[in-house]
Design brief:
alpha+beta, Methylamine Dehydrogenase, Chain H, Immunoglobulin-like, 4 domains, 6-stranded mixed beta sheet, 13 helices, binds (dicuprio-$l^{3}-sulfanyl)-sulfanyl-copper, binds dinuclear copper ion
Length: about 775
Amino acid sequence: MRSILKTSVAVASLVGWGTLSVSAAENLADVMKRRGLSQKDLLAAAKTYTPTGGRDEFVVFSSGGQSGQIMVYGVPSMRLLKYIAVFTPEPWQGFGFDDESKKILDQGKIDGREIRWGDTHHPALSETNGKPDGEFLFINDKANPRVAVVSLHDFETQQIVVNPILQSEHGGTFVTPNSEYVIEAAQYPGVLGRGYAPLSEFNDKFRGAVTYWKFDRAKGRIDVEKSFSIELPPYTQDLADAGKGPSDGWSFINSFCAERYVGGIEQGRPPFEAGCSANDADYLHVINWKKAAEVAAAGKTTKINGHDVIPMKTAIDEGLLFLIAEPKSPHGADVTPDGKYIIVGGKLDTNVTVYSWEKIKAAIDAKQFASKDPYGIPILDMKQVIHKQVQLGLGPLHTQYDSKPCIAYTSLYVDSQVAKYDYCEGKVLDKISVHYNIGHLMTMEGDSAAPAGKYLVALNKLAIDRFNPVGPLHPQNHQLIDITGDKMELLYDMPVPLGEPHYAAAIATDKLKPLIRYKYGTDSRTGLDSPFAVRPGSEKIVREPGKVTVFGTAIRSHFTPEIVEVNEGDEVTFHITNSERAEDETHGFAVSTYAGNLSLEPGKTASLTFKADRPGAFSFYCTEFCSALHLEMEGYLMVKPKGLVDQVSAKATDAVTYTKADFDKQYKTNLDTQTVIDSVVKYIMSTNYKDFPTVVALVEDAVDQLNFAKESRDKTDDAAKKGDWQQGTLWANQWWQYQVKAADIGLRVKTYLEEHGAKTVAK
Ligand code: RUQ
Ligand code: CUA
């Protein structure tokens, strides 16, 4: 069939060649003219264009902002690869729809309230020795103080932890150099434990805090029991970072509104924005987390909602907490790759301030403090611990680092620019304009101890006039900038149609080792074996009073079982395992008007539970275009009305009768198909296909299909022996279905081998 198709395509293109050649002759100069492109544009295109099948050098995980999700895209192509559902349901992936993922989302309930969205800000990659290792990803929820853990083996959210004491946060997620802890700092002050106090008691009763979530890498989960927090003043903590190298063991959190202003525009008082930016300085918090972990382990904590909190007084007495002034309404606290400096942008100051860790440490060790804050926290003398201040422009926010030593990039919100400078010397080197109002920026592995340089992405808040208008809400704009040369070069604008992407993290592609398929019967939401998985042949329907549980399988192109009878009012659960082995051979599952959607990737088991409270005949079907007979991948849920006496048998009757002629015709087709399959198999076996893991998986799948074909063929032959042309023809058809699937996989393998330069090996 395929070869016929290929031949006719070839013939058609031969016939059409004469007319096609006119437009095909358009050359590069013609295209440039027609589209108004410059040489510079062409160069940018050549640097980003990725031909079909090409791969990106880096993979970016971008916050999806208010969508509660994460976007994954490639650099330099800027092609979107995936949305990872984190705090928000995502129907395609079944997240928030299957029973398993509902449990993950339910971990994110706060004080009993179900919250199905999140305001994600800062993703962080797990690190080993300060470098991203490609194993895990963390992200925070500012609106509802939570942190999620995503496994990068399958890009699935596996855990959500709720902060036990905060009511709002922002300084997360930032990881320590070996991902010992995931840092989450408060944003708007509150009563710790989410309690009440009048605003008139703000200074005494309201507090900030920072939580150090203990990460258990072996389990791939945050260990809530071993996590702790430190009580902080109500200074509106903002962004955080962990020290590394010489500053490993310490963390840094900036703040704004150290004025502790409480607003009240409705009482004729100036609004928050005025009161919170009245002073010239706020505070950089310097915290010894390693020592704090010991203090917490020693039990010098109070329990709030069952969680260990080191009181501010203890933090001061134990020498865990120090403050340094920072100008003015700062944003961003970014530790340099070598851990020697911390750079803070002053939103309302034109400088970035480069603090020297060596000087900070010396002052702390010598107990040289300029003063104390109202809570008794020692304040270091800013002048004494500054390395440099670099005048960059209006609204400096966040800083990222290059692979070249001493080179940093800071976003300038008001100027809509990126500044490149030497922070060792305090010299501005270059500036580039972006469109418009950049927030964060990101270089490749730019958070790590060894940034990869090469590219920078400007995460812009407004797109304004950059793209085709799509209504009052515009997409956001991620702009790719080449940073390999002395001058930054803008390469590409990517409209982002999801949430407000605050921050992103990039990793070299070769560090990611995602799964091709799940081990048979995996609950993908936990990564563990599902107790509900069954193998083909052992599918079953279990009936208990008021309850029907289906243990089924899905494989191209049918579900087993196909007909499920229940009584009105029964609780029905479908546990379905995808028994495919081929890469990307995903099925979906939905029961019309009742429930959906499951995403069943190869090897995965997922479950759908609902109450069959409305009688009727309801189809269920596969929601993923998985094969030529995808539309036929269907079944019926028969919800029998209450009190129905006449139990109609579930046994299906055939509407069409088949004769011996039908049987013979199908039989012959099958034998012909087998000849084609044999030739493909022969080709594959003649190559070094075992050198390609993707192909090995596909070949396993094809072998499965051929075994199934064999079983159906035996049934066909049995029926023929009995002269049962009805059953014989139906089974011959099923046999052929399996052949087609095997052939489909075989051709995928053949193409893959040809494209990847497989070699012929001697037999
Ligand atoms: S924020 S634009 Cu990271 Cu939430 Cu700075
Ligand atoms: Cu399985 Cu469509």
